[in-house]
Amino acid sequence: MNRDRISTTIKHIDRETWELAKAFLQSEHGTHYANLGEFISYCIRYTLANDFNVRDFKSLNSGSKSNFHNNISEKKKEMIVNMCKEFAEEFPEDKYTISTIRNIIVRALAESGQLAPSKQTIYNYINFFIANRALIRDTRSGNYIVRPKRFKEILERLVDDSSLSQ
Question: What domains can be seen in the chain, in order of their start residue?
Answer without folding.
Answer: 15-66 (no CATH), 74-165 (1.10.10)
